[in-house]
Amino acid sequence: MIDSVSRAEQTPGERLPYVELGMKDEEYQRVRDILGRRPTSSELAIYSVMWSEHCSYKSSKVHLRQFGTKAPKSEALLVGMGENAGVVDIGDGWAATFKIESHNHPSYVEPHQGAATGVGGIVRDIMSMGARPVAVMDALRFGAADAPDTRRVLPGVVEGISSYGNCLGLPNIGGELAFDPCYIGNPLVNALCVGLLRKDQIKLATAPGPGNKVVLFGALTGPDGIGGASVLASATFEDGSETKRPSVQVGDPFMEKLLIECCLELFQADVVVGIQDLGAAGVSCATTELAANGTGGMDVQLDLVPLRDPTLRPEEILMSESQERMMAVVTPADIPAFLEICAKWDIPATVIGEVTDTKRLVMTWHGETIVDLPPGTAANEGPVYERPFHEPEGQSALNADDPARLARPDDLRATLLRLLGSPNLASKEWVTGQYDRYVRGNTVLAQPADAGVLRVSEVMPGATETNRGIALATDGNGRYARLDPYAGAQLALAESYRNVAVTGARPLAVTNCLNFGSPEDPEVMWQFAEAVRGLADACKALGVPVTGGNVSFYNQTGAAPIHPTPVVGVLGVLEDVRRRVPSGFTGLGERVVLLGETADEFGGSQWAQVDHDHLGGLPPAVNLEAERALATVLVEAATRGLLTGSHDLSDGGLAIAIAEACLANDVGCVVTLPGDDAFTDLFSESASRALVTVVPESFHAFAELCSVHEVPCSTLGVTGGSSLVVEGVLDIPLPELRQTHESPLPALFG
Amino acid sequence: MSAARVGVVTFPGTLDDQDAARAVRHAGGEAVPLWHADTDLKGVDALFLPGGFSYGDYLRCGAISRFAPLMGEVVRAAGAGLPVLGTCNGFQILCEAHLLPGALVRNGGLHYVCRDQRLRIESTDTPWTSGYTAGQEVVIPIKHGEGRYVAAPDTIDALEAGGQVVVRYLGNPNGSLNDIAGIRNEAGNVVGLMPHPEHAVEDLTGGPGTDGLGFFTSILKKLVNA
Amino acid sequence: MARVIVDVMLKPEILDPQGQAIARALPRLGFSGVSAVRQGKRFEVEIDGPADEAALADVRNMAETLLANTVIEDFTVRVEG
Amino acid sequence: MARVIVDVMLKPEILDPQGQAIARALPRLGFSGVSAVRQGKRFEVEIDGPADEAALADVRNMAETLLANTVIEDFTVRVEG
Ligand SMILES: Nc1ncnc2c1ncn2[C@@H]1O[C@H](COP(=O)(O)OP(=O)(O)O)[C@@H](O)[C@H]1O
Ligand SMILES: [Mg+2]
Fold first, then answer.
1. More confidently predicted of A748 and A21
2. Structural domains counted in chain B
């Protein structure tokens, strides 16, 4: 039986399983108040997904506002937060759109498909802005590298990202891979996509113009990810066809590739008024958001949705998370052209409704009205919670547990090798070698690099030749954030910002993925509030606005939350991408120069973890002014062609940075440490530092640039030879260094 | 004189077509886009079947694409001597279409492999490799999950005896028989290889160096001189 | 020596992109009359001893833990013959 | 409506690294007594009409030209039952 609006009116007392759908009593009451009656089961399906934490940001909203209120003025920002992805002006009429999103929980249940559909989802967000997706990145975190569960999850996740991204034809230009026991049972899989478009071709998720048609196109709708909806479909309404409803979604990258090309052709033909991808909450989300952001009304014939499984009920169709689907608003006159382009690409496309000016979203099922609601109430006016928060018990004890008490090593050579061969600092080639980093032919820098760099060269109407480039990096450090979420978030931004700057790109804008435990835990909520505050303040100080992002809560196993893990992505622009600077040593006899100041800072460091399994004290001090000055020097020096190599210092400090720089092209170096404590010089993780190489002829000009911007600059030595030599401290032949760096991950994962 | 015209074929799921077209232009030619569902080769002077995952490579790489309407024309033109180069998925399609012997199966290591690969050019006796010197060592990216070349022993023997092995791996990345990275047909006009020369044509982008450019300059030189 | 066959197919409710791509292509290749295709895996497991109940139980266990991903796949085990 | 099964296996002389990797992993997972594993594909083809000789010939043709690559693979076609 179908639960129509008229039936709902006749059976006001009928109880719906809103609790099973995760709705609170007062939320359900609000729905009744909005509608003036009990909701139909289809309406309840819509409200329950739209008001879920995932879609409504009900616990995070009050904090995230700071990204807007504290946002630095930026002329580059074309579309800010709130749309599918932010859009940034990168010059010459070009715009870039980028966003990072989590797929943590699905990746734990089914690593391959979970990670694959994570990539698919973020790519569709980028497409829905009118852009051509041009690259992806992935920021991954797993439990201890040798934990059995990591061996199950990691290879599957990497294979999922690899198979989906490679098949889509998007180069993977970077990411992260980190291990920490806190992520056991709760890996973090954050995927980023970046797209390019002409500034005047931005598309928005809006459905203006009564009479315009609503088209659903892409994959057929199946029973994917609708465990909850089945409760609804079967709990109240008897139904014979009890087929199984899987909670796992399977991706079809081939369909997505066709969808990309199809969408771009639709944009070129100018037959799209508004467009929205179908992600979580599928048709519910697309219809309510499009309607709410447009003229305000929409009529949908839900029985026209083409199905993969004919037994699906309307509630299930509304909640299905089948992948590779999009929804567009198209004028009646353009419908034939629209459908013809879809047919060319073998993409099923169906007109399922029409835009109206009734301010109501009305859905029918074989003639009966099953949904009649004001779309804004579902899309934009969900519940907002001011969740209580307080500092975790034991936080001050944790901060008081200073790593100064830890025994420091005598044999620094062994320490360096131990760190370099630890899973967090070892070569990520086992992962990155499974990703196509070259497809589309515009990859300028990818692994190993501090940021991925792309040439901006897409064939698009209105595009002219340019030498522009964009750079992207993502960073996060759960250990720092655990010690101090405010500083930890700032350090994540600072590192990402620095990683973009070392390539010579001017940092422009920020995206972020906030991975936390349960917001219902006041201690987690404190971590969240602090991290957002820290990130918003730092964005302001560095002059880079947040353009969008994603919040992932409930990352915990039982009562134990993960370390708070804000992952921050920064996008930068290179006016002339031919001036990009690689991260390794290239030539012989070049000066190796350290920028920035080194202090004795080991709280949350890799050394403390590897040698002492210790987490305590405070993370490295944040100095955003120094960070900004450093970036200014790096970008200007790159633009003037003063640098031959440039690598940021982060995890593992100077020792690891030098080792990586040597290994990039098998060029050794001989350096002398500047300070009086070799251990601190080598392994401290002080922020705002970089290692650069300068040919002797450029040194004077470079040093002057540093002094103008008050960036400390000390020459450590010269490049050359076949060993990493730190005078009086250590001497490691490059083959040994390489063996140590490259063998751990293959040994662990096959 | 108008530039030589090299057709670049796009199947559903082809990925490296834009790169291939750029490489053709870079070498001084005109890239002519060709669509799998058409039956018109537009009078091109040579054909390039680029890499990708046509039809998702779901069944078997190249298995479905080889039935494309355009492939009928490709087979006919190849028989008539038109120079044809297939890289990666293009190579797989040429094998599936029986324009080249053997087949490409799952990598021995079972992982997709993307890396800058050392290769040796074994045969300069094709319109696509005439610009190299025999025995020349080059570095060109590979990126594939199913690139292990296999064929019956007598086929392999015949390829070796006939000088039909065009490119060989130095350090076999996928378990290919005899380290074979690329082959040609008996006539020499049809060449297939797993590496991606179109990703090694500019210093700025792709793999290190420009060792792949020779495939494109070879064919253009031949067409201009023809 | 016996041969045991393990067939692994995606569960019916799970999307099978491979099968769908084939099914969509068939009409264009001149094959009509096919309403659906599903693609799965087939394993031939050679066991040293006879294919008795114990051996089959072993293979079933193997299918459950290694050959099939039971989150999305079903499997069947049978002796070839 | 009938279901026809097409099994596709690599020819015995072609190396099957997937099967080998599984066979190698088995002892580590505590399974002994398996001497070899080979991995192939299984297709379930739903045909509209009955599985008569004509239909089977059609499917055989489809297997020969599309589902299997006879350069490296063998196939068998049978009606499910
Ligand atoms: N999960 C991943 N996906 C893609 N690229 C990755 C991933 N993990 C690491 N990389 C890449 O590998 C290289 C080395 O990584 P890493 O050592 O973490 O760099 P860094 O220390 O400079 O941040 C970088 O180019 C990075 O972008
Ligand atoms: Mg870095």
1. A748
2. 1
Question: What is the tens place of the pLDDT at every residue in A467-523?
Answer: 999 999 999 999 999 999 999 999 999 999 999 999 999 999 999 999 999 999 999
Q: Which segments within chain B are labelled E, that is strand?
A: 5-10, 30-35, 46-49, 84-87, 103-105, 113-121, 137-144, 148-150, 165-169, 180-184, 190-193
DSSP string for residues in A61-104? HHHHHHHHHTPPP-TTEEE-BTBSSEEEEEETTEEEEEEEEE-H
Q: How far apart are CA A210 and CA A202, in angstroms?
A: 21
Chain A: nearest CA to B154, how far in angstroms? 33
A250 touches chain C (CB under 8 A): yes
Query: Quick one: average pLDDT of A19-47?
Result: 94
Give A188 to chain B, closest Cα distance, Å. 22
Percent of chain A with pLDDT over 70: 97
Q: Which domain holds residue D32?
A: 2-79
Q: What confidence score (pLDDT) does residue A245 get? A: 59
A447 alpha carbon, closest ligand: 1
Summarize pLDDT for A341-374 with one digit per residue, the tens. Answer: 999 999 999 999 999 999 999 999 999 999 999 9
Domain that holds residue B200: 5-225
CATH code where residue D71 lies: 3.30.1280.10
Q: Does A63 participate in catalysis according to the annotation?
A: no
Task: Return the residue of C nearest to A106 by Cα.
Answer: C71
Q: What whole-number distance in Å separates Cα of residue B206 and Cα of residue B16?
A: 12
- Decide if D15 touches B, using CB distance below 8 A: yes
pLDDT band of A241, cuts 50, 70, 90: very low
Q: How does pLDDT run across C47-73, given as a tens digit for each residue?
A: 998 989 999 999 999 999 899 998 889
Q: How far is the CA of A744 from the centre of ligand 2 (A)?
A: 19
CATH number of the domain where residue B55 is located: 3.40.50.880
Probe residue for ligand 1, chosen from A103, A428, A438, A444 as the CB with the greatest number of ligand atoms within 8 Å:
A428
- CA B20 to chain CA mean position, Å: 11
Q: Is A647 a catalytic residue?
A: no
Q: Is 90 exceeded by the pLDDT of residue A280?
A: no
Q: Is the CB of A606 under 6 A from ligand 1?
A: no
- Is the Cβ of B54 closer than 8 Å to some Cβ of chain D? no
**For chain D, what is the domain count?**
1
Q: What is the DSSP string of B171-205?
A: S-SS--GGGEEEEE-SSSSEEEESS-GGGSS-SSS
Distance from C22 to chain B by nearest Cα, in Å? 7
**Looking at this protein, which amino acid is placed at residue A578?**
R
Those chains having 3 or more beta-carbon pairs within 8 angstroms of chain A are: B, C
Tell me the mean pLDDT in the region D63-71.
92
pLDDT digits (tens, 9 = 90+) for B86-106: 999 999 999 999 999 999 999
Query: Which among B55, B111, B198 has the least Cβ separation from residue A441?
Result: B198
Interface contact B112-A257, CB threshold 8 A: no
The answer to whether B122 and B169 have CB atoms below 8 angstroms apart is no
Question: Whole-prediction pTM value?
Answer: 0.94
Cβ(A455) to ligand 1 under 6 A? no
pLDDT at A268 exceeding the cut of 60: yes
Taken in order A364, A369, A375, A381, is the CA torsion positive or negative? negative
The phi and psi torsions of D19 (rounded to 5 degrees) equal -60, -40
Q: What ipTM is given for this predicted complex?
A: 0.91
Distance A581 CA to ligand 2 centre (A): 13
Q: What is the block-wise mean pLDDT of chain B (226 residues), using blocks of 10 residues?
A: 86 94 94 95 96 88 90 96 97 96 93 97 96 97 96 95 97 97 97 98 93 95 81
Active-site option among A103, A614, A647, A741: A103
Domains along chain A with CATH numbers: 581-750 (3.90.650.10)
Secondary structure element (H or E) that encloses residue C57, with its range: helix C53-62
